[in-house]
Q: What sequence folds into this?
């Protein structure tokens, strides 16, 4: 057979069209050509998937919304106490978001050493300080955003702008769920009803990942989830029939428009809502818990009871196989969060009182039930606070250059301290760790290699840690 002889121009032209077709196919199919992407069935996207290596089963993240002060909580600075009111050399009046005095401000709280590790802890955490030997502290955290909205995006997604998946979405995308009757990713907002954090639901959004991986918010008052309880006139059988009819129409539509990947997520969300009406009411109620357990979580304390209830609910969700739980302390307004611009003593004293007993009880309860080894607890906010004062000398501004996060639970080496800030806690100076490093560590403790957890979007393989991030191995067992 005689093959046609192509000129160089014709060969390049035809080959070019072929490469273009391959590239177009890759763009239209987000999974094509991505060797490291998670393979999941769109009709059952929450199916439990194996991790890269052994890791924890669940994550509970307590968010100090507003930016708690590291130097008033876990990063004790004796020199700061000694030099109260003196000028802070090299201070940038606009390191934070508003103008600061440039004068050092001692912590208004007493510090004391606790545990065999001798960890210094502020007096505002009398319950949590009993658990310091089970907690690993990273004192050298930093971020790139000094305003709440972009900082919350960065804390949750690794990027300081909207449109990217949050940590909980990445974890559930990678691992799926162990309970098909409950959401894999649950979010609880401020227990006192002070509003959602800035950015609102975008903080737990799935970005460009399928919508089924976004967080489900549990409300602090009333029914925990909208339409959780079936209407009085609606029987289970009738609702099932209506859902079957809706699914049939959706599938017929999908045959004509098979490129609409979000439809699978929508169908699954309707099915999940139906299944939740059976399982969720009991899991999201603490009424069946003993009086002793409720008291341990602070539910008899007028200030601590609301957050304590959320911590107890988090334990029940972990027991039920929920993969990722995020609990926000603090609402949308500056004065109603850990954003202590005006009076750090009043602000942090109030919020610490609300969360201290509940989080400490959560550690105790998980441990005695044999669940702490399979659960990771993370506690941290979007940035720290400045060492110099603000306003009338009693507040602190935002400080993205230094803050502390702590970890506890499976795979964490308790009683450890990693990284260091300067003698006033103004900047991280030793073993500085960015949000990407913290995220890489969370994924590692979940049994996932952060560089291999990717998703192809618009022709590029994305990951939570972008092109950065190193696991903080020093705090791991």
A:
């Amino acid at each position: 057979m005689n093959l046609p002889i192509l000129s160089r121009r014709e060969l390049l032209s035809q080959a070019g069209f072929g490469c273009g077709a391959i590239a177009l196919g890759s763009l239209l199919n987000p999974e094509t050509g991505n060797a490291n992407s998670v393979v999941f069935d769109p009709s059952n996207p929450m199916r439990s998937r194996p991790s890269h290596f052994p890791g924890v089963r669940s994550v509970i993240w307590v968010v100090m919304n507003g930016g708690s002060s590291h130097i008033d909580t876990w990063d004790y600075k004796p020199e700061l106490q000694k030099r109260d009111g003196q000028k802070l050399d090299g201070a940038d009046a606009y390191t934070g978001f508003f103008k600061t005095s440039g004068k050092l401000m001692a912590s208004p709280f007493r510090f004391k050493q606790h545990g065999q590790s001798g960890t210094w802890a502020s007096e505002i955490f009398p319950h949590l300080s009993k658990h310091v030997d089970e907690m690993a502290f990273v004192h050298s955290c930093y971020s790139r955003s000094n305003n709440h909205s972009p900082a919350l995006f960065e804390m949750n997604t690794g990027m300081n702008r909207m449109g990217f998946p949050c940590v909980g979405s990445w974890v559930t995308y990678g691992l799926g769920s162990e309970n098909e009757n409950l959401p894999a990713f649950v979010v609880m907002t401020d227990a006192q009803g002070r509003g959602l954090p800035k950015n609102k639901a975008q903080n737990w959004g799935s970005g460009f990942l399928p919508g089924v991986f976004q967080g489900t918010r549990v409300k602090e008052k009333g029914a925990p989830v909208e339409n959780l309880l079936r209407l009085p006139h609606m029987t289970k059988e009738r609702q099932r029939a209506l859902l079957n009819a809706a699914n049939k129409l959706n599938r017929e539509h999908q045959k004509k428009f098979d490129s609409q990947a979000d439809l699978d997520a929508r169908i699954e969300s309707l099915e999940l809502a139906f299944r939740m009406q059976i399982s969720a009411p009991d899991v999201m109620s603490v009424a069946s818990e003993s009086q002793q357990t409720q008291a341990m979580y602070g539910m008899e304390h007028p200030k601590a009871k609301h957050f304590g209830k959320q911590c107890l609910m988090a334990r029940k969700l972990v027991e039920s196989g929920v993969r990722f739980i995020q609990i926000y302390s603090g609402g949308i307004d500056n004065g109603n969060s850990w954003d202590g611009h005006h009076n750090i003593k009043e602000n942090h004293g109030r919020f610490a009182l609300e969360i201290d007993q509940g989080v400490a009880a959560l550690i105790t309860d998980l441990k005695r039930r044999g669940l702490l080894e399979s659960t990771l607890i993370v506690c941290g906010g979007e940035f720290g606070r400045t060492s110099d004062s603000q306003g009338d000398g009693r507040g602190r501004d935002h400080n993205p250059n230094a803050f502390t996060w702590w970890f506890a639970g499976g795979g964490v080496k308790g009683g450890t301290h990693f990284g260091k800030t300067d003698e006033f806690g103004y900047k991280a100076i030793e073993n500085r760790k960015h949000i990407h490093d913290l995220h890489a560590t969370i994924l590692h403790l979940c049994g996932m290699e952060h560089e291999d957890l990717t998703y192809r979007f618009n022709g590029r393989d994305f990951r939570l840690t972008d092109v950065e991030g190193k696991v903080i191995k020093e705090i791991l067992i």
Remarks:
- Residues 17-35 have pLDDT under 50 and may be disordered.
